[in-house]
Amino acid sequence: MDNTFRWGIIGPGKIAQQFAQDIARLDNARISAVASRSAERAEAFARQYGAPHAYGSYEELLGCPELDAVYIATPHSHHYTYTMMCLNAGVPVLCEKAFALNSQQAQEMVDTARQKGVFLMEALWTRFLPTTLKILELIQSDAIGRVQSVKADFGFKAPFDPQSRLFNADLAGGALLDIGLYPVFLAYLMLGRPDQLHAAARIGSTGVDEEIGMLLQYEDGNGQTARMAHLHATLRAHTKTEAFLYGEKGTIHWHTRWHEPSNFSVIGEDGRPHNHYFEWQGNGYSYEAQEVMRCIAAGKTESDIWPLDRSLGLMQILDRVRAEIGLQYPGEQ
Ligand SMILES: NC(=O)c1ccc[n+]([C@@H]2O[C@H](COP(=O)([O-])OP(=O)(O)OC[C@H]3O[C@@H](n4cnc5c(N)ncnc54)[C@H](OP(=O)(O)O)[C@@H]3O)[C@@H](O)[C@H]2O)c1
Asked: What CATH code would you report for 127-283+316-325?
């Protein structure tokens, strides 16, 4: 029997290309079906990856006879709609970040997956990278003591196009949901849910945040600030895109660009860096894909590594940040 895992893709854009390249490198998976709003685009993508099924609408994909899970790679504005469409049809989903527009949508997605017993996971690829796993292991083994502050940035200079998904409010554009999510994720992973949160943004001509700064505070039992996160994201400048985890007895310096396959150093109290290097194959998306495949093969409906409650928790922090900067997307109340 052929046990090759059969992926379907909804929204064959830039990230779907990278994901499909990584699936093509796996010997236990393949792209089986592609759905686009255009039959020509679906056929071209399917040809490129040897996928036997191509559909000129997303809805038609649900009729595919060879499908084990769907990867949703549309702009964030459409994650909810197509995730719900698949879950309601009983089809497992890996949905790109940001998981949804807001936590209300995310909650509905999670509730539906749980009620129907269908697998769902946010494609928060950084969580599954060997660097992240190693850093968590080091922190658990007390390599730098208790983490007391997190500093992380993510910035690149995006060509200004008001219609593009990065700047268009109808497509949930802006720095926060696209790239600011990564520093927020790191703070959440290391320090949990913040007690206080402050944010300021530069809102551009299309009404979305082009640059955002965030300060997150975590209290000890006495209501005093005990730990902090300093986070920055921008679509208007190339920034170093590094992360620092400052512990009580050392630092982890996650080198640029920290959110993707990268290297890091552990700097102890003697100030000397101990460097960790990793060998990479591909773009880094095979780790999340393999987690989905492992979970589904084991009959699980969510991942233990990045469970749905964590996706919800992250989305709730993003909602709080948006409330601070007064950013609402069209159709939100
Ligand atoms: N994990 C990562 O490293 C990473 C990196 C980049 C992006 N992403 C995430 O992946 C998602 C897609 O990003 P991308 O850069 O691949 O975007 P993209 O190149 O613009 O592709 C998105 C695709 O979605 C489809 N789509 C459906 N409705 C659309 C609409 N109303 N407007 C535009 N496109 C629409 C389009 O395909 P058809 O028209 O052919 O159906 C389009 O090609 C975003 O949520 C983003 O946050 C993740």
From this structure: 3.30.360.10
pTM above 0.90, yes or no: yes
User: Right CATH number for 5-124 from 3.40.140.10, 3.30.565.10, 3.40.50.720, 3.40.630.30?
Assistant: 3.40.50.720
**Distance in Å, CA 97 to ligand 1 centroid:** 10
CA dist 46 and 58 (Å) reads 14
In the chain, what are the domain boundaries?
5-124, 127-283+316-325
> Which amino acid residue places its CA nearest to atom 24 of ligand 1?
74
pLDDT for residue 243? 98
Q: What's the pLDDT score for residue 107?
A: 98
Q: Which residues line ligand 1 (CB under 6 A)?
A: 11-16, 36-38, 41, 73-76, 78, 96-97, 123, 125, 165, 171, 178
Of 1, 57, 55, nearest to 32 (Cα)?
55
- The alpha-carbon radius of gyration of the chain (Å, integer) is 20
- Report which ligand 1 atom has the smallest distance to the Cα of 78: 28
Return the structure tokens found at 98.
């940001």
pLDDT band at 221 (very low <50, low <70, confident <90, very high): confident
> Which range, of 100-109, 141-150, 167-176, 217-226, averages the lowest pLDDT?
217-226
Which residue's alpha carbon is nearest to atom 27 within ligand 1?
A: 74
pLDDT in tens, 169-201: 999 999 999 999 999 999 999 999 999 999 999
Pocket test for ligand 1, best of 165, 241, 306 (most atoms within 8 A of CB): 165
pLDDT for residue 333 is more than 80: no
Burial of 181: CB neighbours in 10 Å, binned 0-12, 13-18, 19+: buried
Residue 107 neighbours by CB under 8 Å, 6+ apart: 312
**Residue 179: which residues within 8 A CB-CB, separation 6 or more?**
154, 155, 156, 233, 235
Q: Do the domains 127-283+316-325 and 5-124 match in fold?
A: no
